[in-house]
Amino acid sequence: MHWNKDEIYKNYDYLQKLYNQANKPLIKTQIWNDLCTMSVIKTQYEPNSKIDESLVKIEERQNNHLSILKENFGDLIIQLNEYSQVRFGNKRPKNVDIVDYNQLLLDFFNNYQPNLIDVYNNLVKNQKIELSVSKSFEEKEPAACFYNVTLNDLYIYARFNDKIFSSQYLPHEMGHAYQAFMFPSMMEVSKKRYSLFIEVYSTYVELLFINYLKNIGYEKQATFLEKKYWQIFATTSECHLNFLFNEDMFLNGVMLQYIISMLLSNVFYEDYLKTNNHDMINTFNKEYLNATDSEIFNEYGFKRLLQSPGNAYKRILEKQH
Ligand SMILES: [Zn+2]
Q: 20 C-alpha to center of ligand 1: Å?
């Protein structure tokens, strides 16, 4: 599964032309951001090309994470720090070949999230998914969903080397893609870019996928992926602590998004395990379209959930055993 290289270059040139013609500063900035995204995508074919730093600096940096954090998460920081000290046993089971990844995904969607099938098939048909072990992306995220506001379009990259231990990335990105298409336009999607809950649905789909692997004979591998998942959570929490001291808003704001989203998606995932339906996440997805982060915090009583004894956080700690 690969992107359409010609289309990517064509889109890049088109955006450049639009950029040169645009007069209004706001529109110009938007196109500039989209050009930046396209140039990141292009590094798939030009691994050595450098992305203009100034492009990245233009990014809006939203500061309200810090205020939400200070209001809600004083004690949580201490808890997260303790959690980050916890170490998992790391016997890595055998990495197994996947013969037909496409079929595996379709079966997974069929069994767990049929509403993803159409989105997935469309992205495959339109060559919007790149599955490879790319040098240019290697050191960055293992996977990403790139939104393009001007073109009202998206591209997915997922690291995949035909083995089970890279199979969880694409399902995660499919969660982002599905959510993006729930919005009326990519413009609306981009407004949610700094939401603390942006990773909730994608993480939920990833957890479901790992659960699916368990049920089709990859029990050991799935358990390892689960541990890795919580380990990332722990590492992320450490980064998050640094955030308090460095206040590098952009980088660590992203870290905070992961922590908060992972906690909430875990709540929904556990509800799914109990009820065998997706009612809770479906309700959340609908609310996510319009609600602000503060409203979501209030809705799910998140602060209480985390800070009272016998809470979600405790359950997370128990998960490692
Ligand atoms: Zn994500």
A: 32
Contact 129, 123 (CB under 8 A): yes
Expressed in angstroms and rounded, the spacing between residue 199 Cα and the centre of ligand 1 is: 5
Q: What distance in angstroms lies between residue 296's CA and the mean position of ligand 1's atoms?
A: 19
pLDDT band at 190 (very low <50, low <70, confident <90, very high): confident
* Higher-pLDDT residue of 77, 291: 291
CA angle 290, 292, 294 (to 5 degrees): 150
d(CA 243, CA 268): 27
Question: Does residue 67 carry a pLDDT above 90?
Answer: no
145 DSSP β-pair partners: 156
Ligand 1 center–CA 167 separation, angstroms: 14
Percent of the chain with pLDDT over 90: 42
Is the predicted pLDDT of residue 55 greater than 70, yes or no?
Answer: no
Cα of 280 from ligand 1 centre, angstroms? 19
Neighbours of 50 (CB within 10 A): 8
Nearest to 146 by CA among 43, 257, 63, 232: 43
Ligand 1 centre distance from Cα of residue 65 (Å): 18
Interval between CA 47 and ligand 1 midpoint (Å)? 23
> Is the model's pLDDT at 48 over the cut of 70?
yes
User: Cα–Cα distance between 108 and 97 in angstroms, integer?
Assistant: 17
Nearest-angstrom CA–CA distance, 99 and 265: 30
Predicted TM-score (pTM) of the model is: 0.81
C-alpha 106/C-alpha 115 separation (Å) is 11
Antiparallel, parallel or unpaired: β 143-148 and 129-132: unpaired
For residue 35, which of 61, 6, 9 has the smallest C-alpha distance?
9
Q: Spell out the domain ranges in the chain.
A: 1-55, 59-113+182-319
How far is the centre of ligand 1, averaged over its atoms, from the C-alpha of 261 (Å)?
Answer: 9
CA distance 52 to 41: 14
